[in-house]
Write a sequence for this structure.
């Protein structure tokens, strides 16, 4: 089983829609989680950190379900500029020196 | 914006040449990482460092080598470039082992 699993998509949604992505992880000891956004041919950029049950930042809400070992990202009122790949990131099992592992990403395409 | 820089941004070079990709950060982070990413594919960790004189190989086998003589500098070297090395190379740093990582803009390498 992969450390982090994401639905690759693509998710094609109209402007204004609400869309949610799920991510499952295998390291039950993980304490910190992150969502990154990566635009085509650009570097990943930190979108949100999740340290407890969840986090909200404007139109973006991240929720953590430790019992089921999944993290979700909810985007409300989608904008064209939200089109990107969203990466779920968790610490590696026995993290120690090796830090984070990145999911393969979920691609979102917001259409006019 | 993260203060992490990579040069060159784009490099086209012939087979057999030796190349060094530069990465510098001014945030005082001890942890630094190199990732390799092909277009539309996931990130693969190839090297990481937990501090000066500390380097280790990542998940993906790579023919490249790294050094960490100064905290702010983490160069990656390919002794003899091959077409199979064509990819995007992303450098990142973080303040802690399980903390968020900040990425440089990447070097897009093409070996002809």
């Amino acid at each position: 089983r992969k450390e982090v699993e994401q639905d690759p998509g693509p998710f094609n949604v109209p402007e204004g829609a609400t869309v949610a992505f799920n991510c499952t992880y295998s390291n039950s000891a993980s304490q910190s989680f992150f969502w990154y956004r990566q635009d085509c041919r650009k570097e990943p950029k930190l979108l949100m950190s999740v340290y407890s049950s969840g986090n909200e930042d404007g139109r973006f809400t991240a929720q953590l379900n430790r019992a089921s070992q999944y993290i979700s990202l909810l985007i409300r009122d989608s904008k064209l500029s939200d089109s990107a790949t969203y990466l779920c990131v968790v610490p590696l099992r026995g993290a120690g020196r090796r830090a984070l592992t990145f999911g393969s990403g979920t691609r979102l395409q917001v259409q006019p | 914006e993260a203060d992490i820089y990579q040069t060159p941004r784009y490099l086209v070079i012939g087979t057999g040449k030796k190349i060094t990709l530069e990465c510098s950060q001014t945030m005082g982070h001890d942890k630094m990482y190199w990732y390799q990413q092909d277009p539309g594919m996931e990130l693969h960790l190839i090297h990481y460092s937990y501090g000066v004189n500390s380097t280790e190989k990542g998940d993906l086998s790579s023919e490249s080598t790294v050094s960490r003589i100064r905290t702010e500098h983490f160069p990656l070297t390919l002794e003899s470039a091959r077409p199979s090395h064509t990819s995007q190379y992303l450098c990142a740093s973080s303040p802690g082992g399980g903390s968020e990582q900040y990425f440089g803009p990447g070097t897009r390498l093409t070996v002809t």
